[in-house]
Amino acid sequence: MTITVGDRLPVATLVKIGADGPEQVTTADYFAGRRIALFAVPGAFTPTCSAKHLPGFVERGADLGAKGIDEVACTAVNDAFVMAAWAKSAAAEGVTMLADGNGDFAKALGLDADSSKFGMGLRSKRYSMVVNDGVVEQLNVEAPGEFKVSSADYLLESL
User: Fold this and answer.
1) Domain residue spans in the chain?
2) Is-contact 66 59, C-beta < 8 A?
3) How far apart are the C-alpha atoms of 158 and 91, rounded to whole Å?
4) Is 131 helix (H, G, I), strand (E, B) or coil?
5) DSSP result, 52-63
6) pLDDT at position 121
7) What are phi and psi of 74, to 5 degrees?
8) Is 49 known to be catalytic?
9) Average pLDDT, the chain
10) How far apart are the first and last CA of the chain?
């Protein structure tokens, strides 16, 4: 079953790179008491993700903050080291990278995608959402192969 507006995020463990290396964070703790813009990409370093999706959220981070977003986060079915390298190469300061290495979070949301025909295995669908204190306030899931409703501009206009 796919998560919908009004649902609480499922409890899952994600990984981010901190000052001392990989840090596990639970969704229950990470999203508690804050309003977070979360977007998901099929994979770090992939064309649309690198050329449009991540840069849009980097560029619009301050605008999102002005609309009450406390933090912008990105998730993908990649490991934390790949996510950190992607953030560094994209100068993505201001975006927290949350690795979903095994795809457990994507599966729990019902937003996983089988990209086996592209040699990529299990991935996440492309989406954006606003999570307010652990509850989905807004959810924008892309149709396969599209990049419209998950963009930073679309999310910003919807706030």
Assistant:
1) 13-158
2) no
3) 26
4) strand
5) IIHHHHHHHHHH
6) 67
7) -125, 140
8) yes
9) 94
10) 26
In the set 3, 49, 72, 90, the catalytic residue is 49
**Residue 142 three-state SS:** coil
Number of Cβ within 10 Å of residue 11's Cβ equals 12
Residue 107 token pair? 């599966």
Please tell me the pTM assigned to this model: 0.94
Beta bridge partners of 75: 40, 98
pLDDT tens-digit readout, 70-87: 999 999 999 999 999 999
Tell which residue, 101, 113, 133, has the closest CA to residue 9. 133
* DSSP characters over 24-84: EEEHHHHTTTSEEEEEE-S-TT-HHIIIIIHHHHHHHHHHHHHTT--EEEEEESS-HHHHH
Token code pair at residue 156: 């910003």
The architecture of the domain spanning 13-158 is 3-Layer(aba) Sandwich (3.40)
pLDDT value at 120 more than 90: no
